[in-house]
Design goal:
Radius of gyration: 20 Å
CATH topology of the largest domain: Rossmann fold
Number of helices: 12
Distance between the termini: 44 Å
Helix content: 40-55%
CATH class of the largest domain: Alpha Beta
Bound molecules: P-hydroxybenzoic acid
Strand content: 15-25%
C-alpha cells in the first residue's frame, strides 16, 4: 500500500514535468512483483523512480515513460516477457531483473536485438561472462564477487571445514563456487554442498544433516522471503550460536524486521551496509525514507544506480537514445556516485566496488570493515 502511494506521488511529479517534454525514453521494468523476491523488485523500482523524480521526472531532459512486467522470478516465462517488452512495447532500455535464471533469457534477447539492458540485481556470471555484450551492463554485482569476498573472510577467521546450503540454480551454484575458490585457496575445505530447488523452503532435513555433521561453520545464499524462513529455521533447529552462519548480505538485507532476534550477530558480505556514514548515502537514505516510508536496502541502491548509469549515457548524447554507440561509451567510462560508494565499470560491465563486511545488530547490517577493496569481476569467457 505504502509503495502504491509513493509510486503515485512520483508519477504525479513526473507527469507535471512532462508538460515541457521534448521526447520520451521508454524504460521497460522487468522485475518480480509476486513470489519470494517481490519485495526486492519493489525496492529496485522505488530506487530507480527516486533518482528520476529527483531530476524532475527526466533524464538528460527526456521524460521517462515506464512499461512494467511482473517476471514472477520464473525462467520459463522470461523469454516471452522480455520479447513482449522489446517487440510489442518498443522499449528503448530494459531494467531487470532479480533472478539469475530469468536474467539469462533477458541477456540473450538483449544480445540478439541490441536493446540496452541494465541489470539491477541478478548476478549470473555468464551475463557478463560468455554472454557479455556492449549493450549489457550491471548496476549490481556478479555472483563471483559475492562468494569470493566471503570465502576469503571465512578462511582468515581460521575455519577449516565448512558446509554450504543454498537454492539449486545459477545464483546459488555460483556464489558457492566462488566462495569455495577463495576459501580453499585460504586453506579451508568445503566438506558438503547442500541445496534445494528454488524457491522451496523445506529446510528441515538439510538442517538435521548440518547438525549431525557439525562443520566449523555454514555458508549460505538465500534472499527475500526464503531468507527469513531459513534464518528462523536455523535458529529453531538449535544451530544458532552453535555453528556460525555466514552468508552473502542478501540474506539479511531488507529482511531483518521479519527475522527479529534470530538474525542477531550474523556476519555477511555485500557492496552496501548500514552506517557507511557518507554524505551521499545519508542524503539518499533520507530521501528514500521520506518518499517510501521505509528504509532503503541494497536493492533500492541498485535501482537508483541503474537510473544514474542511464542518465550518464543519455547526457552524453543530449538525450538521443538512438546514438547507442556513444551512449554505451559514456556508460563504460562513468564513475557512479553511488550511495554504496563510488564505482567504475570493469571491462565486462560490472561495478568495480568495495565489498563490505557487516554484522547484524538489531535491525541493522552494521558496517564491520572492508572484506575486499575495489573487487573486480574477472569476466571469465567475456569477449568484447
Ligand atoms: C540472483 O538470482 O542472482 C539473486 C537473487 C536474489 C538476490 C541476489 C541474487 O538477493
Amino acid at each position: 500500500m505504502k509503495i502504491l502511494i509513493a509510486s503515485a506521488m512520483l508519477l504525479a511529479a513526473s507527469m507535471s514535468a512532462s508538460a515541457q517534454s521534448s521526447g520520451k525514453i521508454r524504460v521497460g521494468l522487468m522485475l518480480p512483483a509476486t513470489g519470494t523476491f517481490a519485495s526486492l523488485g519493489a525496492a529496485i523500482e522505488n530506487g530507480f523512480r527516486l533518482y528520476v523524480a529527483e531530476n524532475q521526472g527526466r533524464l538528460a531532459g527526456q521524460e521517462i515513460e515506464y512499461v512494467r512486467v511482473d517476471d514472477e522470478s520464473d525462467p520459463a516465462k522470461a523469454t516471452d516477457n522480455v520479447n513482449r517488452l522489446i517487440k510489442r512495447d518498443n522499449v528503448d532500455v530494459i531494467v531487470g531483473t532479480v533472478h539469475s535464471g530469468v536474467t539469462m533469457a533477458m541477456a540473450k534477447a538483449a544480445r540478439e536485438t541490441g536493446t540496452i539492458l541494465i541489470v539491477p540485481n541478478a548476478g549470473a556470471d555468464a551475463v557478463t561472462g560468455p554472454m557479455c555484450a556492449p549493450n549489457i551492463f550491471r548496476s549490481s554485482f556478479s555472483n563471483w564477487q559475492q562468494g569470493y569476498a566471503m570465502g576469503d573472510v571465512v578462511a582468515k577467521k581460521g575455519h577449516k571445514k565448512v558446509m554450504t546450503i543454498t537454492w539449486k540454480y545459477a545464483a546459488g551454484d555460483e556464489v558457492v563456487k566462488s566462495f569455495k575458490e577463495a576459501f580453499e585457496k585460504g586453506g579451508g575445505k568445503v566438506t558438503e554442498e547442500l541445496s534445494l530447488p528454488f524457491p522451496n523452503v523445506e529446510f528441515q532435513a538439510l538442517l538435521t544433516a548440518i547438525a549431525a555433521a557439525k562443520p566449523d561453520a555454514v555458508y549460505t545464499f538465500f534472499a527475500g522471503a526464503g531468507a527469513v524462513k531459513f534464518v528462523k529455521d536455523y535458529s529453531a533447529a538449535g544451530l544458532k550460536g552453535r555453528i556460525p552462519l555466514y552468508s552473502t548480505g542478501f540474506l539479511t538485507d531488507g529482511t531483518l524486521e521479519a527475522m527479529g532476534r534470530d538474525a542477531e550477530g550474523i556476519e555477511t558480505t555485500l557492496h552496501y551496509a548500514d552506517g557507511l556514514d557518507s554524505v551521499r548515502d545519508k542524503g539518499f537514505r533520507l530521501a528514500y525514507a521520506k518518499t517510501f516510508k521505509s528504509a532503503p536496502d541494497v536493492y533500492a541502491v541498485q535501482g537508483y544506480d541503474a537510473a544514474q548509469m542511464l542518465s550518464v549515457g543519455l547526457s552524453a548524447v543530449g538525450g538521443d537514445v538512438k546514438r547507442k554507440t556513444e551512449l554505451i561509451a559514456a556508460m563504460e567510462k562513468a564513475t557512479i556516485d553511488s550511495p554504496r560508494g563510488r564505482f567504475t565499470m570493469s571491462k565486462n560491465h560490472n561495478p568495480v566496488q568495495d565489498i563490505y563486511l557487516r554484522k547484524v545488530v538489531g535491525t541493522e547490517n552494521k558496517l564491520a570493515g572492508i572484506a575486499s577493496k575495489a573487487l573486480s569481476d574477472p569476466g571469465r569467457g567475456c569477449r568484447m
